[in-house]
Amino acid sequence: MIMINIPIYLLSLLYDKSYFFNAILGLAFTSTIIDWLTPLNGLVHLPIIMSAIIGGMTIGISVGFMLRQHISPGGVDLLALLISKTTATNPGIIIFIIDSLIVIAGIFILKDLKLMYSLITISCAGLCVILINSFKSINLLR
């Protein structure tokens, strides 16, 4: 996984140093949170469809708020952030397209329809990222 992400990190370092340092920060933050939440693994048992939806929404909300601050957990999210900066496209759309292409390729190569649940997760995550990054500012109090 690291070997795949190294070119993306180097691209961000060349393109915009703040994105590179924010990506390192995001990587450290998400890695720490994942380590803290690991003991909760297996605590709740839900049907796979519910897990796909709830997981996608959790990832989407988390990544969406990180991307609003130009922080990325790395990988495809960092690439989407870089592309969205140059094309003025919502990063959620780019994440959804790239992740969907990867999963669809996996479905064809592995011939495992259980990967369709990954498409559900990606759709929920992408929708949350799109919604969170669609507004310039969010005022809850008037």
Features of the shown structure:
142 residues, mainly alpha, globular
Structure write-up:
The chain is mostly helical and 142 residues long. The chain has one domain. The protein contains six helices and no strands. Helix 1 (2-15) runs parallel beside helix 4 (76-87), helix 4 (76-87) crosses helix 5 (91-110) and helix 5 (91-110) runs antiparallel to helix 6 (116-132). It is globular and about 40 Å long. The chain starts with a helix and ends in a 10-residue tail after the last helix.
Write down the secondary-structure element order: HHHHHH
Number of structural domains: 1
- Class of secondary structure makeup: mainly alpha
How much helical structure, as a percent, in the residues?
over 70%
Instruction: Give the beta-strand count.
Output: 0
Q: What distance separates the N and C termini?
A: 45 Å
Biggest sheet character: none
Strand and helix map with partners:
Elements (H helix, E strand, L loop, with lengths): L1 H14 L1 H21 L10 H21 L7 H12 L3 H20 L5 H17 L10
Helix pairs in contact: 1-2, 1-4, 3-6, 4-5, 5-6
Short description:
The chain has helices at residues 2-15, 17-37, 48-68, 76-87, 91-110, 116-132. It has 142 residues and is mostly helical.
